[in-house]
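User: Okay, second chain of the day. Same drill as before: sequence in, structure tokens out.
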Amino acid sequence: MSKIHLIPHKVDKVYESAADIPEGVQMIQAPDIWEEASKGKGNVVAVIDTGCQIDHPNLKDRIIDGKNFTSDYEGDSTNYDDNNGHGTHVSGTVAAYSSQDGISGVAPEASLLVVKVLTGEGSGDYQWIIDGINYAVNWEGPNGEKTRAISMSLGGPEDVPELYDAVKKAVDAGIPVICAAGNSGDDRANTDESAFPGSYNEVIQVGAIDFSRKIAPFSNTNDEIDLVAPGVNILSTYKDGKYAKLSGTSMATPHVSGSLALIINVAEKRFDRRLTQTELYAQLVRRTIPLGYPKSAEGNGLVALAILEKFEQLFDVYTKPYGS
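Assistant: Same drill. Structure tokens below.
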């Protein structure tokens, strides 16, 4: 059996410091619902990747727990530090927190469960991934916290039955699984490119767009694409306490994972109960806008977290009695 790898990505630029709400976070309208969503507080997102820099100033207070399933650090399961940079970047897009210096992620008060399943070289055994997913599903925090979403910016060419079973177990447990579509695209929507686990019907498969709302030429297209998010020149946290701009569907995926941490708080407050995975997916899809591309490229469209509130405000205007 072959290895599973990071979705290939491009490191555009590394920065010593940064202080901003990244353009991608703004593009999906996350700050517009931060107040109503309590910035994702109370929700745990499992990032299954290369680990995370545990003492990064914008991440250290967001990490609730973690585990290393790789052979790195002589197989020390308690050391899930990031020796690649990719996992730290993904984690920052989900939940980086900035009080003054640094950047904010999509859900800056959500918690991160760091699951290191890929080595510093960016590859891992399928069994590591499978064990990592099962760990995230079964994990319970010190105060009874449970994983509410799983983010995976990794993939391989093989449809491994045991990997599918692990994904299915997570979804059956009510946990949305968000996966990168892959970066093997040829800039044509009528040709299919696939990577697993992204191509499983049960996962939320994310393609990438740029800040001009154009589909990134590298973004895989296929009939299982669910939606798209920013994935070109994405600013986030990086190893060694730094920041970086990276490009890839890997970078689009955590925008959606963080979005679910916000949506859970908004929607479950309104329904006054815990929602199922299917209901959470429906709430996510309701917060998208089509961009005019074929479904094989954009699925339901771009995440737009405040779109429902904007419609409600518009509806209020048109339904108020004349002169009120």
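The first strand starts at residue 4 and ends at 6.

User: Thanks, on to the next one.
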